[in-house]
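Can anyone check this?
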Amino acid sequence: MKKKLLLLVFLLLANLTFAQNTILWSVKKPNSEKTSYILGTFHQMGNSFVDEKPLIKELLSKSELIIFESIEDSKTKAEVEEVFLNRKDDYSYREILHQDDVQFLNNYSKDWKIPIHKLKPGELILKLHQEIVKERCSTINTTDTFQQMEDYLQHLAKQNSVPVLGLETYVDQMKVINSSHTDKEELSWDKAKNIIHQYVTDANTNDKKRLKQICSIANNYMRMKLDYQFNLKCSGEDQLLTKRNNKWMPQILKYINDNKTVFIAVGLYHLYYDCGIISQLKREGYEVKPIKLK
């Protein structure tokens, strides 16, 4: 009896572990012939990561609709760049940030398409995060032709002539990027000062322990060692995550309910916790199962 109980516990734990070790999930509506899919993406990931997982490309190519957070083709990117460049110059960051950080940032950003004096604090933080992850966490291979995972997935959608849909616009995303976690006010240079200082420190660090911390999310993603914590309630700091998920859900449900094979590709953390898309789909009565990837 004891051995049987231990075996049962082992099987349950093994199933739980597998359930967390994937970035791809199937979604099926009861009594429907169609199966849809959800992929948790990592923005700073080169195309080789997807190429090494042919099942992702196969399911994407066979889908009838692919849903992204937003659609960023070459035309959209050019329009977005124009919006930035047409902004009024703002050099106030030079007076507010630590002077050593200002000197570093002026040199670090010299090849950026958008100069710092055209960026808002939230946008600079995001840009620093993207650059540091790419430089320090080996998410991009030298042979990669795409450095953004969503860019590559949208490229594949176009190659396979699969229609695409964006859940939000560029304006929506800019509001999120530039807001504080409460979404009540725009992030100021003063409030961003210490965050930016930490990113500057991280960009220069050679401390192995700190580098391990910086790259922990990227490394766990590449190894698919993930804990979605579906039973954990979203906190006050997750207000923006919750708000975006709740805004997206009616659109997601609409297209899945149309009895189409839908492929949904959104940032990994939109799948986490009880406010995440997976938990919400389960509460709506959908069967959501992990798909094993090699």
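Reply from J.R.: I decoded it. Residues 2-20 form the longest helix (19 residues).
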